[in-house]
């Protein structure tokens, strides 16, 4: 069948992100014998979609929704994506009678509500490679399903290679300098706010390192990009698959600068040195909170001493590190806030991105807690952004305290819009890449090996 896939994401902060999920889906569809074209809101827009419908005459239209909003409690209502999704569906419907199928991580967070709001025909929850192929097989035989929301019964056992649109790849390589790959799916952790286990399952499914490397080399051959970002939920999985990939990259003499999202617990010097030998240029750390009480409230199985240890280790290695911190989450009090701000003061050579409140999603443990505590209406589907704010702390006082503690420190970013403004200014000057690592200036004197563990 002829399938036109469209990525609906039009967010450019902190930088434009290549729609990897759509490219993975396209690969699966092409391997199943379907003819696929890919477009997206940033590199093409509605004009290109209209032209593609006229020339390609698709039999099915697929829309990938990456985000519902930007999860920033200060601005998320202004960045709500579903009105734009509804307009896109209406635009496509006026130009094609083909069934419109929604998918993507954003859609899977609230599928029934989003499908109803958008006006699309069908939706696929979770990993779509196998389920969308089955949908197309049935559609080709004239058997469209009665059920509008389709759910995969199990996770995709083995992720195949992607099939990216080369013009789209080159657009993102030029605009942001960053391209992305995925080396595994699944997340075994139990963070109370997180939906990754709901989207990808709790079992780690690592890809063959050689397959990942071949995709990386494909990117190198076809476009000029500065850096790679591994989009794994958590790169350093407990079984050590991440180390096998780093070893394979080193063995094959691949030294493309790359970054990933790490959990602080268990990281050791030899692990990071191996990754640095393969091109690791910076680490983004899911530290999440700044005191032991609030770490426990978020379901973390480590204390702040572990965050401080890994921060010192990165400084010793001259490896830029960024910590993502949530204030006003579960069990936050004025005392824990004050303690957390003192703790962050000791992370002197790391960037800290801080936000206030925790975005709530149905299915996450924190959503259930918010209902129990009467902080969320049972009637809310969380389609419009809803946040958990600790009832033990006044929001405005917390906001003032964080701003005062962070002051004019260039390595402290709060509220999130402050970081977006800095990144935008750097991009306007021609800088490309993840950019936050440029905020760090390591001391010129050699450091003691205090973070060597």
Describe the protein in words:
With 453 residues, the protein is α/β, with parallel strands linked by helices. Helix content is 38%, strand content 16%. The protein is built from 17 helices and 17 strands. The strands form four sheets. The protein has a seven-stranded parallel sheet. Strands 2-1-3-4-5-6 form a six-stranded parallel sheet, with helices on both faces. Strands 8-9 form a two-stranded antiparallel sheet. The radius of gyration is 22 Å and the shape is globular. It starts with a strand and ends in a 25-residue tail after the last helix. Mean pLDDT is 94; it is low at 444-453.
Which descriptors apply to this entry?
about 450 residues, alpha/beta, 6-stranded parallel β-sheet, disordered C terminus
